[in-house]
Amino acid sequence: MTEQKQKICILGGGFGGLYTALRLSQMPWQGIPKPEITLIDQNDRFVFLPLLYELLTGELQTWEIAPPYTELLANKGIHFHQATVEGINIPDKQVRLGDNSELPYDRLVLALGGETPLTMAPGVADHALPFRTVNHAYQLAERLRVLEESDQDKIRVAIIGSGYSGVELACKLADRLGDRGRIRLVELSDTILRTSPEFNREAAQKALASRNVWLDLETGVEKITAEAIELNYKGRIDSIPVDIVLWTVGTQVASVIKSLPLTHNNRGQLTTTNTLQVLDHPEIYALGDIADCKDTNGQQIPTTAQAAFQQADYTGWNLWADLTGRPLLPFRYQNLGEMMTLGIDNATLAGLGITLEGNLAHVLRRLAYLYRMPTQEHQLKVGVSWIAKPLLDLVKR
Ligand SMILES: Cc1cc2nc3c(=O)[nH]c(=O)nc-3n(C[C@H](O)[C@H](O)[C@H](O)COP(=O)(O)OP(=O)(O)OC[C@H]3O[C@@H](n4cnc5c(N)ncnc54)[C@H](O)[C@@H]3O)c2cc1C
Q: Which among 7, 2, 25 is positioned nearest to 312, based on CA atoms?
């Protein structure tokens, strides 16, 4: 009798899901038939989010940071299905998709990532832009283009939240807009980058100051309207006219995950074991921004690309071990430090005992991300383009 092929269904093609799929494609399926592996994402392309800012300054192009899944998964033995996940029937092991199809699974990987909450102040959903997808970057670039082509003297941008995204956006926009830009960064606490290493925080403070980015610390947002933003500094309310408001505060788990009858923490993330399996459901794996996970040393895993990428390696391995009757590996997280882009050709990095800022940090950040690109084919194409671009620029001069 022929053994039935197991079905692995991976929901979400970001750092957690796509890299799990790619890891699975490398495993030696001996002794059992190779499982049917399906990756589902609502979009047609993966997005290398840490490089999304570079679309605003033209430093990088969409094809470099957002390659289509069909291209990445060609000849990898992984089926890609573009659809929105609408629900999961856990007792029947079925995924319900927005195109009215249902997908059965034997093993399920949940990697749907986070969303930016747009309900934290009145007017956010109607008048502020989040920054999390290629479409958000396009929307912002289009708003900037219209303002840049207008006869308006100054272009006023308010960025809410001074975590990584807020600070990185402020520096890139300041470089893009130059003297025409009036950029303010609004932060509820008394410092920017509260959780960052001191070195990166100081480098960021310097980069913001040298670009004349205005810092509103200890300031809350009362309301956003089409023309202005109302800020609350220690009880004093000021209304400030703005052209663009960017909202970068918070990450929430999508309702399709929150509504599952599984164990969640108070932020809606799924609680997992250190083998990245959901509690009481060893057939379901969860990783990335939707997972509340402590590694084998009891370290709480941060919601970063770096963590999702490392978890994907273990998830791929553990699925293979699970289906081939081998012991599963407990996840061990290695904090490699953090890197930030601070304007065109400028970055800071701190980790593994190294601290560096400026152009060299920018080059190292690019190389580190090139190394992390999803497939060797894509790495090669992007690497050649990065080497060729400065040479072509020289020839054009
Ligand atoms: C602008 C930005 C910059 C960042 N920079 C850094 C950085 O420099 N370093 C770092 O370590 N981390 C960074 N992060 C955080 C990092 O990108 C995330 O922690 C990481 O992407 C999490 O991986 P994930 O697989 O959980 O989710 P994601 O990579 O977000 O992938 C989730 C996938 O699920 C898909 N999806 C969601 N809902 C559905 C649905 N209902 N149906 C179908 N598909 C769905 C999405 O389209 C997406 O492809 C950044 C994040 C942002 C937004």
A: 25
